[in-house]
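Section 3.1: Structural characterization of target chains.
Under the original work plan, the team committed to producing a structural model for every single-chain target entering the pipeline before any wet-lab resources were allocated. The record below documents one such target. The sequence was received from the expression subgroup and is listed exactly as submitted; it comprises 353 residues.
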Amino acid sequence: MTRGGLILAVESSCDETGIAIVEDGRRIHSNVVASQVAMHAAAGGIVPEVAARAHLRWIVPVLDEAWAAAGVTWADVSAVAVTNGPGLAGSLLVGINFAKTLAYVHAKPLIPVNHLEGHLYAAWLVDEAREVPEPLFPLVALIVSGGHTFLIEMRDHLQYRLLGETVDDAAGEAFDKVGRLLGLPYPGGPEIMRAAAGATRHDVAFPRAWLGDSFDFSFSGLKTAARRTIAAETGGQGTSAGETPLADDRVAELAYGFQESVVDVLVAKTIRAARVAGARSVVLGGGVAANRVLRDRLAAAAQNAGLPLVVPRPGLCTDNGAMIAAAGARRMEAGVRAGLDLDAKPSLPLARR
């Protein structure tokens, strides 16, 4: 089975409703995403029940827009791919049941895709805004998002070996929580990056959890250090978005110090893992990969190590249907199919040690 033809893919693992139509697992014909960020901002994080209901509201309009942008018909589509885990159970079920219905009604194969695999395969996507060569095997990939932070080795397509993962909190979660402590809006990652860019002093030092020679990550201690520092400077009051007792310049300095701590560890461990694995390229993916400082720092470190870095443009780093289509095409080529009994797997792993 080849990757020829178009894959229609559905992504609804968390708070983004994404549907895309992609050719040969690589070329994007359409990629439509309905974001719920504004909806969850008041709560300072994702409310699962609200997210699931929003997927129900937006999934048909998103499909309609994806069809209009692609200018194709069901006769051109080879298969329907869908995220079946990991993620929020209610959100996953909306996308899975929608995709199963489409596959059944139009007599198309149904391809299950691991959401984390999608973030990996975003590195293979191209469109009018991005023409890049395919990553070279063997490769080491850093996937870093709100729910996941891990390093994985790929010797070939669909072959994964877990090198390291977070032992507590994901980097994206740490960004969100520290952003809240600093009184920045949700989501914290982009806001911390913006605040840090305005820092005029760079002398705030937060701890780095190196964990010896391990490729694992830990960010809980960093969060604790940030919380204690902020509490000491605010008289233990804490902060909330728009009501921070900290001066803007101090928020910028603390944001800079926190971001530097996260980026230093992510970059150092990724390059060391690539050297140990004998990688020919490095891939960066996941929502936190949209962070400009992380992208630039890892690109420079990879260049110094003589390795090409492949990183999707920011719009393809966050959750979207195109990345699910890219991974789905490889799974289709490998003969992977799902029946109409496909169910959500909220804790679905990509690989084990």
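DSSP finds eleven helices and ten strands in the chain.
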